[in-house]
Amino acid sequence: MSSPRPRTRPTAPARRSARLALAVPAALLAATLTACAGSGPAGSAAQEGGDGKAPGTSISVNLRGKAAAPGEPVKVTLAHGKLKTVSVTAGEGGALAGRISADGRSWTSERVAAPGTAYTVEARDTDGGSDRAAFTTAEAEKVNKLSLAPGKDTTVGIAQPLSVVFDHPVKNKAAVEKGLKVSTSNDTEGSWGWLQDHSGKDRVDWRPREYWKPGTKVTLDAELNGIDTGADGGWFVRDYRTTFTIGAAQVVKVDLDGHHLSLHRDGERVLQVPMSGGTPGGDKASWRGTAVLMSKEGTINMRSETVGLGDAYDKMVDYSMRLTWSGMYAHAAPWNASYFGNANRSSGCLGMSDADAAALYGQVRVGDPFEITGADAKGTVAEGNGYGTWNVSWADWQAKSALK
């Protein structure tokens, strides 16, 4: 049987939210919990006119109305007695988990209320009384989104970091980082580090202290719905999730001075080929340090003007393996055959014969590290130029976390 009509209290004057500049009443939502004193179902005596009804016990909710400020935890407070259960559900069927305080007087959600979402609050006290309330949060004036690497349910190499690139600037880095939950099948030690992507966008990567162990299963739960990323950034209005697995322990070792590269699997060399790196002494030189295979792109058109080298080349290139955003690849370069094994004369890439490039292309995996050594280089791969995170010491990498 139904409970009596809830009593309400007068509301306080409205105030404006500094964050969203929308009207948000400051008064707490008042609702009545009723408990039946008779032996019938809760609320039965109240429906029959209130005879035998226990004194009403009021709850208050810190958010109310149709334009409540998002980004805050939901808090339900009981004026008298103790709460037994509280549920806060979103219109799409999701729910906010939370905890009742030690004294039983209040409940607070673990996560914040998201923008543009209708919520229903249902509470029950230890005397059997119950009631519900509802509120809707204001729409986000600006929405932030992200892209994730690696892709969902992929198998990647031992150097592949988790990489998150944001559409808009992130000022509230600590709040965002708190929502990024990484779990692994073997408790891998790792850290987030903030950097600027080669595109100029804000980016945060999670890398292990050392290369991943083969077979490790990794999950990222980006619990970001309702997080305000700050000025010019906007709000997140959804969560994200990705999973991936680490493949075999493969490392490509590139010797620029010796003009060859080799593929090592589980510590054993399985392939060695002659090659020609970038022409030393200028912009055409190759990068040194650890680069990570970003993608296997097959046959692509490479044009020198896209990497700031004028009209030096315009070629269709086979077995293309991208190593940096700035345009360094390993690929087939039959036009440079006379230099393989004896000189660096490319425009920055690692060139091989068709057969050798095909052999390497067929065995490497996205996420495999290319460890490049030698004096004939123009510098070290930057952390945002592809996945150059391995060129930063572990201590320096940890210092890039917003939660250090």
Can you describe what's shown?
It is a single chain. The protein is elongated. The two termini are 55 Å apart. Helices cover 6% and strands 41% of the residues. The longest helix is centred in the last third of the chain and has 10 residues, at 354-363. A hairpin with a 5-residue loop joins strand 9 (98-100) and strand 10. The protein is mainly beta and 404 residues long. It folds into 3 domains: 14-137, Immunoglobulin-like (Sandwich); 146-246, Immunoglobulin-like; 250-391, L,D-transpeptidase catalytic domain-like. The chain has 4 helices and 30 strands. It has helices at 44-47, 173-178, 354-363, 394-398; strands spanning 14-16, 23-25, 29-33, 57-61, 65-68, 73-78, 83-90, 95-96, 98-100, 106-112, 118-125, 130-137, 146-149, 154-156, 162-166, 180-184, 190-196, 202-208, 217-222, 240-246, 250-255, 260-265, 268-274, 286-292, 295-303, 314-322, 329-332, 350-352, 369-373, 377-380.
Topology:
Layout: E1 14-16, E2 23-25, E3 29-33, H1 44-47, E4 57-61, E5 65-68, E6 73-78, E7 83-90, E8 95-96, E9 98-100, E10 106-112, E11 118-125, E12 130-137, E13 146-149, E14 154-156, E15 162-166, H2 173-178, E16 180-184, E17 190-196, E18 202-208, E19 217-222, E20 240-246, E21 250-255, E22 260-265, E23 268-274, E24 286-292, E25 295-303, E26 314-322, E27 329-332, E28 350-352, H3 354-363, E29 369-373, E30 377-380, H4 394-398
Parallel strand pairs: 5-12, 14-20, 21-29, 24-30, 27-28
Antiparallel strand pairs: 1-2, 3-4, 4-6, 6-10, 7-8, 7-11, 9-10, 11-12, 13-15, 15-18, 16-19, 17-18, 19-20, 21-22, 22-23, 24-29, 25-26, 26-27
